[in-house]
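Shift notes (night). Ran Acyl carrier protein while the centrifuge was going.
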Amino acid sequence: MATSFSFSISMQARVSDLSATTTRFCLQKPASIFHNGKTNLSFSQRHPIPARLAISCAVKQETVEKVSEIVKKQLSLAEDQKVTARTKFTELGADSLDTVEIVMGLEEEFGITMAEERAKEIATVQHAAELIEELIQQKTA
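Came back to this:
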């Protein structure tokens, strides 16, 4: 089964510590992801790719917000504590037990079950939201 979508990618290449350039481009043609138990995304670019390239697929903002709230609740953070998609659990003082409790809270809230090895990989709110949406999609397929 293939899913088609269009997306944009932003790249930032550091020339030195003092300067950085950002290149943004959007693929107008749909790209395909083939689901065979894994998600594969490939594309080609005519320009050299910087040594450090990060690709992030957008997840629903409401998923990120729910994950952020669960993280704040599990870690007993103040209401005004800012937790964004890029926030790392370790930045909030979470240890491995806290991470397990966060995963349990996410499973309960979203009605999903995460494999232990996948749950161990979660380090940011964004990564948790991406995994949740992937598991929800698999559940409904």
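Helices lie at 61-74, 96-110, 116-121, 125-140. Strands lie at 2-5, 8-14, 20-26, 31-34.
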